[in-house]
Amino acid sequence: MGILRIESVKGEQGHRSHASVYNAINDGLMTKPVKIGQRSVGWPDYEVAAINAARIAGQSENEIRELVKRLHAKRLELATV
For residues 3-27, b (16+ Cβ closer than 10 Å) or e, as one string? Predict the structure, then answer.
């Protein structure tokens, strides 16, 4: 599993700005970042890939919001293993 920094996330998802990534998070269309340092965050690569696959498959925004919830739940599962 890799961690993508914001520039990579923007490139993978086609966002043009940091703000658009954070707007997607606020809208429930993107997972929240994970802290990887004192002043840095990133996203698990499998989460970005899953959201991209859902978009490519034509899933609705509501379906993507549900996916984001499942991805957040998966983080909790992985943290307790």
Answer: ebebeebbeebebeeeeebeebeee
CB-based contact 69:32 (threshold 8 Å): no
The answer to whether the predicted template modeling score (pTM) of the entire model surpasses 0.85 is yes
Cα–Cα distance between 22 and 74 in angstroms, integer? 21
Domains of the chain are 3-79 (1.10.1660)
| % of the chain surpassing 70 pLDDT | 99
E-assigned strand segments in 1-81:
3-4, 34-35, 41-44
